[in-house]
Design a protein that fits this description.
The chain contains eight helices and twelve strands. The chain is α/β, with parallel strands linked by helices. It is elongated and about 55 Å long.
Length: about 220
């Protein structure tokens, strides 16, 4: 899971990032609203944590801009502004949850998990399910109904990412960055090859067409 932390207070930003990294989340950081907007609109995140009082672009403006442009990344406000009016405004603008500083680490992580489950990013007890496909993220095993899918590590990661973003169009570049990483020595052509491999694994069960090709763009998992 990849999380963007937008917070101008450096010590707090580091604390939030460390808490998330200790739970095995990948974390990117932004110190102001403009940087946060750039990252949030340029890369694929599973969650954004966002302060309201930010330099260059405040949190309200940032979430308004993202939502107006069609970005639906789950967003959690972490802010010292505790007035009911501020909470209502944040939620009305498109935020998914709101925590007032200071907050307990346990509550913060519980809110993160809740948001990821609510948006289909994380299954209960390490399970990711879409239609007939079930992934056990603890054992790194895949199943079609009760039949085992014999997946390589990269095939599992690719299918996991497709289920995370089910019924959304993903570009080859987005898939490549998430599954292989921008520092990989290969190119995004590897995406097409592994989509082919994955379809071959699904074909005996009659589900290879779940992975749809979006010409000139990328792929989408959709029944």
């Amino acid at each position: 899971m990849r999380v963007l932390v937008v917070e101008d207070d450096l010590p707090l930003r580091r604390i939030i990032s460390t808490i998330l990294e200790d739970e095995q989340y990948e974390v990117d950081q932004a110190e102001n609203g403009e940087e946060g907007y750039f990252l949030a609109s340029s890369f694929k995140y599973d969650l954004i944590t966002l302060d309201i009082m930010l330099p260059k672009m405040d949190g309200f403006s940032l979430i308004r801009k993202l939502r107006s442009e069609g970005f639906q990344t789950p967003t959690l406000f972490l802010t010292a502004k505790d007035r009911i009016e501020d909470r209502v405004k944040g939620l009305d603008l498109g935020a998914d949850d709101y925590i007032v500083k200071p907050f307990a680490t346990e509550e913060f992580l519980a809110r993160v998990r809740s948001l990821l489950r609510r948006t289909g990013k994380m299954g209960l007890e390490g399970k990711m399910i879409y239609g007939p496909i079930r992934l056990d993220t603890n054992q790194h095993e895949g199943f079609i109904h009760q039949e085992v899918l014999k997946l390589t590590i990269k095939e599992f990661e690719l299918l996991f990412y497709l289920i995370q973003n089910k019924e959304q169009i993903l570009t080859r570049d987005q898939i490549f960055q998430r599954v292989w990483g921008i520092e990989s020595e290969t190119t995004d052509a590897i995406v097409d090859l592994y989509i082919h491999y994955l379809r071959k694994k699904l074909a005996p069960f009659g589900y290879d067409q779940l992975i749809r090709t979006i010409r000139g763009v990328g792929y989408m998992l959709k029944e």
